[in-house]
Design goal:
This protein has 311 residues and is α/β, with parallel strands linked by helices. The chain contains 14 helices and five strands. The protein has a five-stranded parallel beta sheet, sandwiched between helices.
Length: 311
């Protein structure tokens, strides 16, 4: 499908990839002073945002498509192997505390399952069938979005996930770090962040990993902004699950409303700690149940709820 079982052919395929290119000028890197290597690595990393910037139109188009599906009840599902898979799981796991999403709303699939987060699962990345099984276990729906992540753009697990999702009518996005990748070609939206050869030949946990993290940050964060999970640049859907987040909740309500501490505390108490609801009670002068109703009628968008309340 996307890979070859012949070792010689596979070697030729890898050698053709920008992410696998050998850099002879760095052949003596192990003999250089530590500070020189650190400066070199820092300079390499500095080039990543510029590579991402070149693909902002494609990223924005993908985000709008994701938000449209999620607004209709769809899920955002990441699928990748190795570092790419771990980055997807990381991004998914940070959405519930940041945006108060249901854990099932943004999901990270990694080839080989949860164990692969900390242990290499041999052969898992080479299985498109495994990707199909993982997606079938989630009962994929047409409103869902599947983002296949692969630095090389040739990983069978990621491509298999995208191809299977597309056959089920789901939105598909292929995120890779090589131009003209099979992964991007298989997806509705291809995002190719070409960061060039790595400092260590083929170590795509470096620049490629950084590029993927930056793009995943955008996909999830801006999608949540589009879904009304923020008010301005405030995380008004933050889940106050520990003391730090409870303090952050109080601060967010104060920043959004200009209210004094006592009023903030009263508002949060009246809304079971829901930041968005508390802001609405203060700015619109409504009680907790009314705030909840207004937000429900506004699909969770605080600005729309405030407008409906005449605030």
């Amino acid at each position: 499908m996307t890979s070859t079982s012949n070792p010689r052919d596979l070697r030729a395929e890898l050698e053709s990839l920008t992410t696998e290119a050998f850099r002879p000028e760095l052949a003596d890197i192990d003999q250089r002073p530590t500070l020189d290597i650190a400066r070199l690595m820092n300079g390499e990393d500095a080039a990543v945002p510029a590579a991402v910037a070149e693909r902002l139109p494609q990223i924005a188009a993908a985000i709008d498509a994701i938000a449209d599906r999620m607004a209709r009840g769809g899920r955002l599902i990441y699928a990748g192997a190795g570092t790419a898979g771990r980055l997807g799981v990381l991004d998914a796991s940070e959405c519930p505390p940041t945006f108060n999403t249901d854990p099932a709303q943004v999901v990270g699939l990694i080839a080989g399952g949860p164990e692969a987060m900390v242990t290499s699962i041999e052969g898992a990345e080479d299985s498109a069938e495994l990707a199909r099984a993982d997606l079938d276990a989630l009962a994929l729906a047409p409103t869902d979005t599947v983002v296949g992540i692969s630095a090389s753009g040739r990983t069978p697990y990621a491509i298999g996930a995208v191809e299977h999702a597309r056959s089920r009518g789901a939105l598909t996005i292929g995120l890779s770090c090589n131009a003209h990748s099979a992964l991007a070609a298989a997806a509705d939206h291809g995002i190719e962040i070409v960061v060039g050869p790595e400092l260590l030949t083929g170590s795509t946990r470096l620049k490629a990993g950084t590029a993927q993290k930056l793009v995943l940050n955008m996909l999830s964060t801006i999608t949540m902004i589009r879904l009304g999970k923020t008010y301005g640049n405030l995380m008004v859907d933050v889940r106050a699950s520990n003391e730090k987040l409870r303090a952050r909740s109080r601060r967010i309500v104060a920043l959004a409303t200009g209210a004094e501490d006592d009023e903030v505390e009263h508002a949060l108490a009246a809304t079971d700690g829901e930041v968005k609801n508390a802001i609405l009670t203060i700015l619109a002068g409504v009680d907790g149940p009314a705030a909840a109703r207004l937000l429900e009628e506004s699909d969770g968008h605080l600005r729309a709820a405030l407008a409906a309340a005449g605030a």
